[in-house]
Amino acid sequence: MTQILNVTRNDDGQFEITDQRGKVVEGPFATNAAAWKALDRLDNNDHAPARSRGNKKVLWGKPERTKSKKTRRKEKKLQEKQDHRMKVNAAKAPTWVRSVAAANFDPAGERAYRDRKLGTFGAASEVRRIDPAEYLAEKARRGEA
Q1: DSSP 3-state of 85
Q2: Distance between CA atoms of 73 and 115, rounded to whole angstroms?
Q3: Rg of the chain over CA atoms, in angstroms?
Q4: CB of 35 closer than 8 Å to CB of 18
Q5: Taking Cα atoms as reference points, which of 49, 41, 48, 47 lies closest to residue 5?
Q6: What's the burial of 103, exposed, middle or buried (CB within 10 Å: 0-12/13-18/19+)?
Q7: What pLDDT was estimated at residue 72?
Q8: 15 near 34, Cβ under 8 Å?
Q9: Rounded distance, CA 5 to CA 17, Å?
Q10: Residues sharing a CB contact under 8 Å with residue 109, sequence separation 6 or more, in sequence order
Q11: Which regions of 3-117 does DSSP assign to beta strands (E)?
């Protein structure tokens, strides 16, 4: 004999699975959806399996759809192509353009260039390390005013 089951709401506002006579088969459940899910389990008529959710956090709006393997492969190939084109074009550039670009992309190299350029008058020069008392004593010994 086939048993007819239904989801009903009890006096407490919770949901229960009842048979034709009104006898509680399973429950109570907090939500209507949870009760229907349990009813589906009892019937062994599983509908479409629940979709797995992505592991991406949703800051606002809808979650970002995961990209297919084909799309990811295309994007990677395109990125590699663009990187190669940039390198080829950079090699064709005149020397002065390459030196400017190198300064933008290599701040450590720029610092080294700047330090060499300072020579004897920069912050790292020997002139900056002279003690004023020594300087005045040397000047007085030579007889300069």
Answers
A1: helix
A2: 45
A3: 39
A4: no
A5: 41
A6: middle
A7: 93
A8: yes
A9: 7
A10: 102, 103
A11: 6-9, 15-18, 24-29
Q: What pLDDT, on the 0 to 100 scale, is given for residue 114? A: 55
Expressed in angstroms, the distance from the first to the final Cα of the chain is 123
Pairwise CA distance, residues 22 & 8, whole Å: 9
5: nearest Cα among 15, 14, 13? 15
| pLDDT tens per residue, range 21-66 | 888 888 789 999 999 888 888 877 555 556 666 666 666 777 778 8
Is the separation of the CB atoms in 3 and 19 below 8 Å? yes
Contact present, 41 and 26 (Cβ < 8 Å): no
Side chain identity at 52, as an amino acid letter? Answer: S
Are 15 and 28 contacting, i.e. CB atoms less than 8 angstroms apart? yes
Helices and strands (DSSP H and E) totals, the chain: 5, 3
Across all residues in the chain, what is the average pLDDT? 78
Type of residue at 47: H
Q: Which residues contact 39 (CB under 8 A, 6 or more apart)?
A: 5, 7, 17, 26
Place of tokens 């592991």: 55
